[in-house]
Write a structure and sequence with these properties.
The protein is of the alpha/beta class. It has helices at residues 53-60, 83-92, 100-103, 110-115, 126-139, 156-168, 186-203, 214-220, 238-243, 248-255, and strands spanning 5-18, 25-38, 42-46, 68-73, 76-77, 93-96, 174-178, 206-210, 223-228, 231-237, 306-309, 312-314. The chain has an eight-stranded mixed sheet with strand order 6-7-8-3-9-10-12-11, with helices on both faces. A four-stranded antiparallel sheet has the order 2-1-4-5. Helix 5 packs across helix 6. The chain is globular. The two termini are 33 Å apart. The relative contact order is 0.14.
């Protein structure tokens, strides 16, 4: 059903214990994220490196255990799924990784790589699996002779196409694209982005598109979530985020986008202060020591995500 959430996150946390310190502490990679990802949309997830974007994506894909909170797939908690539904979840939620070369087994040929997710599917005959693999390789724009070659024989863009074919072969509903084009040349990025757009229409896919490139996110995404130190600080449509950014951190990120042919240095917002350690525990707003609009109450009060305008949410004490 259109606009029905496929994935729902309820106060999801991913904390890593720090065993090398004298005092027990935790690295709070994801620290209480709640949001919905609706059927048929592309939700962008942006923020600085180390803010927890990839960790959240891996948690949704089942590759990273959560510390607390719930991940719901079609309104059912994935921790409580029956064996049959857990298998269905793994098939329906796939991931395209940032480094295509590192995500492909160098000892396997493309045919084996794309076939691997199908090996335990007893409902398909061997001939049907072979036909499906050949179809998927052609769908992502690779020639038929690619099937019997190894990953190192391909360029970075072609390797990413192999990874996309592998994620598609199970016919998933939802794909996590974790910096899927950041390791590629700009011209190749455009080809992969166009491919992802075509596949979304052809296969009725829903994407979580993780990126630090806001220009790409603006082009690809319907809604955008801005993440800072493991928390969502702003969430809204692409038009709202770029046309009326509310959080000071979001405005700083957007001001840093290079603009061809324009001198935009005077509009650039340069954040001061030090980025807090991910092990830090805050009494107030985590962005307090870098914020250029903070007030006295920000240091002692923790902001919560609230709706500032219809469909536009922000976590800031200075915004009603």
């Amino acid at each position: 059903m259109a606009n029905e959430p496929i994935i729902t996150l309820e106060n999801v946390k991913v904390h890593f214990p720090q065993t090398h310190t004298f005092k027990k502490s935790y690295l709070r990679a994801v620290d209480g994220v709640s949001l919905e990802i609706r059927a048929g949309e592309t939700l962008g997830l942006v923020g600085e490196s180390g803010c927890g974007k990839s960790t959240l994506g891996k948690a949704i894909a089942g590759l990273q255990p959560t510390t607390d909170g719930a991940i719901l797939f079609h309104n059912e908690n994935v921790k409580n799924l029956s064996r049959a539904n857990a298998i269905r979840y793994r098939k329906n939620v796939q991931m395209v990784f940032q480094d295509p070369a590192a995500s492909l087994n160098p000892r396997l040929k493309v045919r084996q790589i794309v076939m691997e997710p199908l090996l335990k599917d007893v409902k398909m005959s061997g001939a049907e699996k072979v036909a499906l693999v050949e179809k998927m390789v052609q769908t992502v724009g690779l020639p038929a002779d690619a099937l019997d070659r190894y990953p190192h024989e391909f360029s970075g863009g072609q390797q990413q196409r192999i990874g996309i074919a592998r994620s598609l072969v199970l016919r998933p509903e939802f794909i996590v694209c974790d910096e899927a084009v950041s390791a590629l040349d700009v011209s190749v990025q455009a080809q992969i982005l166009n491919l992802l757009g075509e596949l979304k229409k052809d296969y009725n896919l829903t994407y979580l598109f993780i990126s630090h490139n806001l220009s790409v996110v603006k082009h690809m995404c319907d809604r955008i979530a801005v993440m800072y130190l493991g928390r969502i600080v702003e969430l809204g449509s692409a038009a709202q985020i770029f046309g009326n950014p509310l959080h000071p951190y979001t405005r700083a990120l957007i001001s840093a986008i290079p603009v061809a042919g324009k001198r935009n240095r005077e509009n650039r917002i340069v954040l001061t202060g030090d980025l807090p350690a991910p092990t830090a525990v805050f009494d107030g707003c985590p962005f307090y020591n870098r914020c250029y609009e903070c007030q006295a109450h920000c240091e002692k009060n923790v902001p919560t995500l609230h709706e500032a305008e219809p469909g536009h949410f922000v976590s800031c004490l200075c915004i009603d």
